[in-house]
Specification:
The complex is a heterodimer of chains A (116) and B (112).
Chain A: E1 5-7, E2 10-13, E3 19-24, E4 31-38, E5 42-50, E6 53-57, E7 64-68, E8 74-78, E9 87-94, E10 106-107, E11 111-115
Chain B: E1 9-13, E2 18-23, E3 31-38, E4 45-50, E5 55-56, E6 61-64, E7 70-75, E8 84-92, E9 106-111
Parallel strand pairs in B: 1-9
Antiparallel strand pairs in B: 2-7, 3-4, 3-8, 5-6, 6-7, 8-9
Classes of the chains: A mainly beta (116), B mainly beta (112).
Chain lengths: 116, 112
């Protein structure tokens, strides 16, 4: 158990819909990362938040957005869903935001999104 | 960020050492080598990291060549539970964020 929790575990929805994935980081971790894992693209970094502020952005679509709340939990919002958005979505957390040699990230169990 | 090259797959007999190579010939002086693994669609798990010295922890050893252009992750006594995809990642120590860039990894199959 990494200490990172993600809800829901599974999500099945239809094209065009909007969903929200939730992540609670390990106690004491200030950074939250979102990654997407699909069969054809592998594990890809989407976005990072550090202590409530966006720190880094990866290949995140404009239809996707995220935020980190004062209690440090984070939500990833996916809208206008397409079939190709079906994937595993992982959240990870770490103590540091950047500039540290110690980049151990703790990953949650993931949310499996299926878009029909 | 430096790119990494790993074999697509490897087999290892249970109880033997598993040696997983990684090439990172374009690595620069401030970049660390990290290893993570992913067991069957679970979240990736940190294993070990290093800069230029060899490192060992309770999970594995990391051997980095003197020129830092390649490294080897060693699982000293592989078990069936070590069957996973192993990712070698080069991560800069100072950048705008600490995101991990995953490649294809090596699928390690430990066989009885």
């Amino acid at each position: 158990d990494s200490g990172v929790t993600q809800t829901p575990k599974h999500l099945i929805t239809a094209t065009g819909q909007r969903v929200t994935l939730r992540c609670s980081p390990r106690s004491g971790d200030l950074s939250v990362y979102w990654y997407q894992q699909s069969l054809d693209q592998g594990l890809q970094f989407l976005i990072q938040y550090y202590n409530g502020e966006e720190r880094a952005k990866g290949n995140i679509l404009e239809r996707f957005s995220a935020q980190q709340f004062p209690d440090l939990h984070s939500e990833l919002n996916l809208s206008s869903l397409e079939l190709g958005d079906s994937a595993l979505y992982f959240c990870a957390s770490s103590v540091f935001g950047s500039g540290s040699s110690y980049n151990e990230q703790f990953f949650g169990p993931g949310t499996r999104l299926t878009v029909l | 960020d430096a790119k990494t090259t790993q074999p697509t797959s490897m087999d290892c007999a249970e109880g033997r050492a598993a040696n997983l190579p990684c090439n990172h010939s374009t690595i620069s002086g401030n970049e660390y080598v990290y290893w993570y693994r992913q067991i069957h669609s679970q979240g990736p798990q940190y294993i070990i990291h290093g800069l230029k010295n060899n490192e060992t922890n309770e999970m594995a050893s990391l051997i980095i060549t003197e020129d830092r252009k390649s490294s080897t992750l060693i699982l000293p006594h592989a078990t069936l539970r070590d069957t996973a995809v192993y990712y070698c990642i080069v991560s800069p120590s100072k950048n705008a964020g600490n995101m991990l860039t995953f490649g294809g990894g090596t699928r390690l199959m430990v066989k009885p």
